[in-house]
Amino acid sequence: MNLTKEQEQKILTNKVIDIALRLAFIFLITALCFQIIKPFIIMVVWGIIIAVAIFPLYNKLSLALGGRFKLAAILYTLFALSLLIGPSIMITGSLVETTSTLAKGFHEGTLTVPPPAQSVNEWPLVGDEVYALWSQASNNLEETLKQNRTQVKELGEAFISAVAGVSGGILQFIVSIIISGVFLANNKSTYAVTIKIVSRLR
Fold this sequence. Notes:
Helix content: over 70%
Number of helices: 6
Oligomer: single chain
Largest sheet: none
Mean pLDDT: 79
Shape: flat
Strand content: under 5%
Number of strands: 0
Low-confidence stretches: none
Number of domains: 1
Order of helices and strands: HHHHHH
C-alpha cells in the first residue's frame, strides 16, 4: 500500500517520539540507579586501592598458608578490621564516659572550671577575651553558659557534626576493607574481569 508523504511524515514523527520517550525513560532509570549506588562508589574505589596496596603482603601470607588464598583473605580482613574497630571502640567509649561525667557534674552542680593562668592574658589577639570568659566561667559556670547560649549551641552542633563525620568515615573505611578482602579472595576472577574491561575500552 502506497502511503502519502503526509502519512509517512506522521509515522516517522511517531517513531521519533517513541524513541525519544524510550531514551528519556532509560536515562531516568540510569540516573536513579546512579543515585542509589553513588554512596558505594567511593567505598568500592577505596576497596580496590587497598587491595592493590596490600596484595604483595597478602600473596606472601597465601604462600605461607599453602596457597589457601581465601583463608589468607579472611585473616587479612579480620586483622585489618580489628586494627580499625578496636581503637575506634576505645575512643568512643572514652568520649561517651567523659561526656556523661561532665553532664552529671553540671546537673549536680559539682562541675567546676579552674581559674586561668595569668599567661593566658598574654596570648596574642584573643588573650584578653579568653581570660575574661575563662575567669567568668570559673566563678559562675552556669551563668556564663546562659549568657553565651548561642555560642554554646553552635559549638555543640559543630562537635556533633564532626563526630558524625568521623563515624561515617570509619564506617566507610570498614566497608572498603571488607570489599578489598572480597577482591583479594577472588583475585584471579577479578583480574580476568579487569583484563576484559580494559580490552573492551581499547
